[in-house]
Amino acid sequence: MRKTCVSCRAVLLVVLCCIHAVSLLGQSFRVHLPADARPLQSGGERATSPGPLDGRLLLLLSNNFSAEPRTQINDSLRSQNVFGLTLDGAAPGSVVVVDDKATGYPHAHLSEVTPGTYNVQVVLNLYETFHMADGRTIKLAPDRGEGQKWNRAPGNLYSKPFKITIGANGKPTQDVDVALTEVMPAIAPIADSEFVRRIRIQSQPLSKFWGRPVFVSATVLVPAGFDQHPNARFPLMLFEDHFNDGFAEFRTTPPDPNLKPDYSDRFHLEGYNRIQQQEGYNFYKTWTAKDFPRFLVVKIQTANAFYDDSYAVDSANLGPYGEAIETELIPAVEKKFQGIGQGWARFVYGGSTGGWEAMAAQVFYPDHYNGAFIACPDPVDFHAYTNIDIYHDKNAYFTPGANIQMEQPAMRDYLGHMIITQRGVNQFEAALGDHGRSGEQYDIWQAVFSPVGADGYPAAIFDKQTGVIDPAVAKYWQDHYDLTAKLQREWPQLQPKLEGKLHVYVGSDDTYMLNNAVYLLQDFLDTAKPAAHAEVAYGPRAEHCWNGDPKLSNAYSRLHYSTMYLPKIMQRIQQTAPKGADLKSWRY
């Protein structure tokens, strides 16, 4: 039921003055858009005057009162409720009703919410209109420096949380009014330090593709004595990772003695924050030790309108990120930070998303790198897209039987207990955004690997509601981004460039079943002719993200990426550096 729109200020006063919980039985929420709301312009900046709003409106209901609901939405068992709908040209000052038609998770509909007391909050993740070089016009949430996080993206609108009571039997007694009175603040830039430096450049091919200026950047860990050795030239280690704004694993001061210890649910460790600080300080001491090799560690930042990372390849939907990284960003880093600038002196490593990127960078650009250390990679063979075979399965959500359909798992713990189903994780993404705009994992795989769909957005590999797989899209994936298939097709040309360069590590009980694809990759590498001389290793009972250390658990080894592969890297340099190569200036 709609009522005449009142001003946001009046609504806010009503909300703040309500000291009793609203009784809600079935459910209709009236969201009041600010009368002075300003849309996003090109570049993610808000317009100077009010105008129609595009975006994903997210209604959040949480029975955990320890924090704002917007911080409690995820694909874990602890997730609170989210219900989403898309706004397309909504007028400032208007009222949007969120009811049972909204797409929800973990409950599909508002009427299914369990009776009880909840904090209610609404977030509007604003979209920008992109006029693409190929003539498409699409609406997406641009990254605004936060790493594609809707719950803290600068400029997004949200409401202050307040309590309501949801009753039983689906019988509403009154609507709930919510006012979007708050704006998420800009993110302050981070200053460079003695060891951590930054570089940001505009990419010409990406800017052309997107029809607006697009920037790529990198955070660089420079070696001890960098400023005192202007004539030294350094090897480069590309550390593929998600969006980040620094090196959290590097700390120049001892652990904080007053730090209150926390508990890591993932690693079942008390005081893991203290462990992280101590390991970070240990890394600093190793990094600055007299006999430690001097090199650059580079983390690229390619957050975009679909995800916090580009997957470091050229893509029909994301654009030529591979070209931008390899021909613009890496050369710019090497020029500014005294890199050697040759393939024998570049190595790439990373885990999970970074693991797939490490392998893709080495395979798509085989002359650019002298070795890839590929930990717990995202699916490197789409016969095992987690546990889905997109080439032979008909449905991503269910395994068919004679008289029953079995739900497919998407996540498990190291004992094999299912954490969430394939249908569940995609329901979560569907609540956050339609047309592949959730900013989450399956949607970015689809955006990177798929062709452009008829609607201008990424072509769906499977239907989000039914799970039915599109074989034509699967064939496109196979021909372009299935890394094992690429090796099989092009091995005679690739083998001389990849021999001895591929090092793959994964836990045999990976949380996302990523080990399944590695088994298939290994089947090829072990029998390839000519021989690959690759390394593949598995961590027994290890979950995501085992990275090849047989002596330490994930809790510790994940903090050692920038040192753990160094012995193999140094050996590779000695074996393969060309005659006359600089092997001394960086060993001061």
From TrEMBL:
Entry superkingdom: Bacteria
PANTHER family per the UniProt record, alphabetical: ENTEROCHELIN ESTERASE-RELATED (PTHR48098), IRON(III) ENTEROBACTIN ESTERASE (PTHR48098:SF3)
Source organism per UniProt: Terriglobus roseus
Protein name as annotated: Esterase
